[in-house]
Amino acid sequence: MSDPRDLRPEGPAALPRPAGLATRCLHVGQEPEATTGAVTPPIFQTSTYVQEAFGKPRNGFEYARTQNPTRFALEALLASLEEGAAAHAFASGMAATTTAMLAFVSAGDRVLVSRNTYGGTYRFFSKVLANFGVGFDYVDTTDLEAVRGALHPSTRMLFVETPTNPVMEISDLSALAALTREHEARIRSRVRLVVDNTFATPVFQRPLALGADIVVHSTTKYLNGHSDSVGGAVISRLAEDGEKVRFTQNAAGAILSPFDSFLVTRGLKTLPLRMKMHDENGRIVAAFLEAHPKVEKVFYPGLPGHPQHALASRQMAGFGGMISFETGSIEAAERLLNRVRICALAESLGGVESLMCHPASMTHASIDPEERLLRGITPGLVRLSAGIEDVADILEDLEYALKAV
Question: What is the pLDDT of residues 139-186, one digit of tens each?
């Protein structure tokens, strides 16, 4: 029986190799539909497929949890953008992270995790997966010696966010990859470096090219970019790891729907353009906040004062639109967030519109208060996802809101 993934579109035969990122965003997985020549591939909104005869599925398509052409097209595109051997799309970013863990760790294994990580990731690791015999060690992954010292004979994965959510710490991926390979050789077992690339996107950062084994994304954020879809993705550097993810994806079933696959594919067509605007606005807004007398501290890797600014400049092609800043107290944060008009108070990030949130009570509320403080997530910390509005309007909105602080 043929593998239906062999039929998924890879892009026009004349596409130059290696094509640029913007070209791949538009063309990989986007062959015109065969019957009509429609430039946009159709949404295969089906749950199952009629078989030709007993034991003869049409081109290997049997059931939509396992195979869907719309999802396959997106997965081909994601693999190309992250320069991986395989990609798999999921119903949420947390479903992607969950599947990456289930595919590669077992009871008795330990996972080394960036101390500053998304609250939902911490919740799943520490309050769900830990109940099944997997151990988690949280470490400052910007400190290579701290990482080296935290490696254990049972460590089978290093899970890294960079930049971290929400305090924007940057980890050296090439150096961490080297440490991972050293540990692998020492214990004579596979150890995977997994990188959450949601904040940077493949436009600004290529973890697999820097030595990572697996990349995860919340496609809800920048990849889709329009705040109208929830999804996730796992991209594997090696085909054998991709096969493990594929098997787990099918077994667990948390797939991305055909319509959401279409939405993310549509969003990716403008990803380079949007990221350029997010980056331009992010740099201007961060500088404005840094100079503002009502702001105590700004966390943005594009600022020269950021502790990993030099590393970010080497490792990333841009700094993006994610900024966190300290207002000094929860009362100040509340007054600010209640006064913004363009920068909407809402969960999530990475959409074309500017969004602001209070990490301690929203995105990272699942982390114990004492642990939040140790990670720099204070009651006065505010996170801003700078959108692509006219930057003068964003600045005016922030100035107006800061008057209440």
Answer: 999 999 999 999 999 999 999 999 999 999 999 999 999 999 999 999
* Residue 244 is among the residues annotated as catalytic for this protein: no
221 given a catalytic annotation: yes
From 5, 65, 294, 335, the catalytic residue: 65
Statement to judge: residues 247 and 366 lie in one domain:
no
Asked whether residue 155 is domain-assigned, the answer is yes
For 79-92, the DSSP string reads HHHHT-SEEEEESS
CA atoms within 13 A on the CB side of 230: 8
Of residues 49, 118, 122, 222, which has the active-site annotation?
118
- How many Cβ atoms are within 10 Å of 351's Cβ, its own excluded? 23
Residue 46 domain flag: no
Q: With cut-offs at 50, 70 and 90, classify the pLDDT of residue 41.
A: confident
Catalytic residue among 115, 156, 206, 221: 221
| Residue-number span of the structural domain to which 222 is assigned | 69-268
pLDDT digits (tens, 9 = 90+) for 229-273: 999 999 999 999 999 999 999 999 999 999 999 999 999 999 999
